[in-house]
Write a structure and sequence with these properties.
Elements: H1 17-20, H2 26-39, H3 42-57, H4 63-68, H5 70-74, H6 84-92, E1 95-101, H7 109-126, E2 134-137, H8 145-152, H9 159-182, E3 185-188, H10 193-210, E4 217-222, H11 228-241, E5 246-251, H12 256-265, H13 276-292, E6 297-302, H14 306-318, E7 328-333, H15 338-346, E8 351-357, H16 364-373, H17 380-394
Parallel strand pairs: 1-2, 1-8, 2-3, 3-4, 4-5, 5-6, 6-7, 7-8
Helix pairs in contact: 2-17, 7-9, 8-10, 9-10, 11-13, 13-14
The protein binds flavin-adenine dinucleotide.
Length: about 400
C-alpha cells in the first residue's frame, strides 16, 4: 500500500458517491447496477439459485458466465494469485485486503489439511505486506462440524474422536503459530452458536499464547446473541488477568434464521435477540466498550451498518485516538458497502475488505448467501442500488 492517506478534513459522510465509486469505471458501475437490480427480485434470485445449482449438477460449462458476473462482483479470484489485481486495486485507495478462502462444507481430513495449508499460504502472502493487514479462517474449514458441536455441548468423546480433536487443535495452532511467526494478524470467524464454545476455547487459548506483544489472534463476537456483550467483557477480564492483548472482530451475526429455526425445533430459548433494536444497542455498546478499554483491546468493526461505523469513527475523534491507530479497523465485504469503505479510508481511517476466493463452484454457497441477504428491498440491495444510481446520475450515464 502507498503512504497512508492523511485524511480529508471535510466531515465524514457516507453519501459521497463520487468517493464511494471512484475505483469503478462506468462499465463496472453499470455491471454492479445490473447485479443488484437482479438481486432486488426475490423470485429471480430463487430461480437463479436453482438453475445454477442444476447446471453445475449437470456439469454444464457455466463457470465462465458466473465468473464474469456475480463472482467478479464479490470475489477476488479462484486462487491467491488471481486476487493480486484486487489487492493492488484496493491498496491504491488505502484499503487493505483480507484474503478469505471461501470453500465450505468439507468433511474429510484431507480437505481440512488442504485448507490449513491454504490459510498458511495467505499468511505467507501477507508477511511484510501492508496491503494485506489481516488473514482469516473458519474453524469449520479445518474441523468436522459435528465434532465441534459435541465438544461445545460438553459431550464425553470416544477415543477416536479425542484423537481427531487433538488433530483439530494442532491445525488451529499451526495456523496461529504461522501468523505469529510472520507477524500477521489473524481473525477466527464466528459461526453457529452450538459450535461456538469450542471455537471460543480454541481462539482464547491461542490469544493467551500469542497475543503478548500485540494482538495476533482475533476472536469474533456476534452481537445478535444476547449473551455476547457479557462474554466479551469476560474475555476482556481474562486478557487483563492473563496480561495479553484481546483481539476482537465484532459483528452482528450471519446465522439468525438458522439459529431461530433450530431453537424452535429443539425447544430451547433462542440465543438471538428478539429484535434488531436490541442487536444494534449491544453492537454499539460493544464498540463503546472497546474504545473505553483501548489500552489492551484491538478491534475490527466488521459491519455494513452506517450508524455503527460512524459511531466508531466519532468515538476515536472524541477520545483523541489517531484515525489510523492500528488498534482500530473497519471492515466490509468486497463488492458491498463501498460507500462506507472508501469514504472511511479517504478520511484516513483503517479499512480492510474481505476478499473471498476459491474455485467458482466451491464458492457458490458464499455467493448464494450474498444474493439472499441482498434480496430485501429494505436491506442492502436497495441501499446499494440507490447509491449506484445516484453515482450514475452524477456521471450523467445513461
Ligand atoms: C468484515 C465482516 C466480517 C464478518 N464476519 C462474520 C463472522 O465471523 N461471523 C458471522 O456470523 N458473521 C460475520 N459477518 C456478517 C455479519 O455478522 C452480518 O451478518 C452482516 O454484516 C450484516 O450486519 P451489519 O452489521 O453489516 O448490518 P445491519 O444491516 O445493520 O444488520 C443486519 C444484521 O442484524 C441482525 N438482525 C437483523 N434483523 C434482526 C432481527 N429482527 N432480530 C435480531 N437480529 C436481527 C442480523 O445479524 C443481520 O445480519 C461479517 C461481516 C463483515 C462485514
Amino acid at each position: 500500500m502507498s503512504a497512508p492517506s492523511t485524511g480529508s478534513s471535510a466531515p465524514l459522510s457516507f453519501n459521497n458517491t463520487e468517493i464511494a465509486f471512484q475505483s469503478k469505471s462506468n462499465f463496472d458501475l453499470k455491471k454492479s447496477y445490473l447485479i443488484f437490480k437482479t438481486f432486488n427480485y426475490q423470485m429471480l434470485v430463487k430461480t437463479g439459485t436453482r438453475l445454477i445449482n442444476f447446471a453445475f449438477s449437470l456439469h454444464l460449462p457455466i463457470d465462465g458466465l458466473v465468473k464474469k458476473t456475480v463472482f467478479a462482483q464479490f470475489c477476488g479470484g479462484e486462487n491467491i494469485l488471481e486476487c493480486e489485481e484486487t489487492v493492488k486495486h484496493l491498496a491504491k485507495y488505502h484499503i487493505g485486503t483480507i484474503l478469505d478462502y471461501s470453500v465450505e462444507g468439507k468433511e474429510e481430513e484431507a480437505d481440512f489439511d488442504a485448507t490449513m495449508h491454504e490459510i498458511i499460504h495467505t499468511i505467507e502472502k501477507a508477511r511484510n505486506n501492508p496491503a494485506i493487514p489481516f488473514c482469516v479462517f473458519k474453524t469449520t474449514g479445518i474441523a468436522r462440524f459435528d465434532l465441534l458441536a459435541q465438544v461445545s455441548a460438553g459431550e464425553k468423546l470416544e477415543d477416536m474422536d479425542k484423537a481427531e480433536y487433538a488433530r483439530v487443535r494442532h491445525k488451529f495452532e499451526n495456523i496461529c503459530r504461522a501468523a505469529a511467526d510472520a507477524n500477521v494478524k489473524i481473525f477466527v470467524d464466528a459461526e453457529e452458536s452450538w459450535i461456538q464454545d469450542a471455537i471460543d476455547q480454541l481462539a482464547t487459548d491461542m490469544m493467551r499464547k500469542y497475543n503478548h506483544k500485540t494482538a495476533i489472534v482475533y476472536n469474533t463476537v456476534q452481537l445478535y446473541r444476547h449473551d455476547r456483550l457479557e462474554f466479551m467483557k469476560a474475555s476482556h477480564r481474562d486478557s487483563v488477568s492473563g496480561s495479553y492483548y484481546l483481539g476482537l472482530k465484532i459483528v452482528r451475526g450471519a446465522y439468525m434464521e438458522k439459529e431461530r429455526e433450530r431453537a424452535e425445533r429443539l425447544y430451547y430459548p433462542s440465543p438471538i435477540h428478539a429484535n434488531k433494536e436490541n442487536v444494534d444497542r449491544d453492537y454499539d455498546a460493544a464498540i463503546r466498550y472497546c474504545v473505553e478499554h483501548a489500552s489492551n483491546i484491538y478491534v475490527c468493526a466488521g459491519t455494513h451498518n452506517e450508524n455503527s461505523s460512524k459511531l466508531l469513527a466519532e468515538l476515536l475523534l472524541e477520545k483523541d485516538i489517531a484515525k489510523n491507530d492500528k488498534r482500530f479497523y473497519f471492515s466490509q465485504l468486497l463488492g458491498m458497502s463501498d460507500h462506507i469503505s472508501f469514504n472511511l479510508s479517504q478520511h484516513g481511517y483503517n479499512v480492510a475488505k474481505y476478499v473471498p476466493y476459491g474455485p467458482v463452484k466451491a464458492v457458490m454457497p458464499y455467493l448464494f448467501r450474498r444474493a439472499q441477504e441482498n434480496t430485501s428491498v429494505k436491506g442492502q440491495a436497495g441501499r446499494e442500488l440507490q447509491l449506484i444510481a445516484a453515482e450514475m446520475q452524477r456521471r450523467k450515464m445513461k
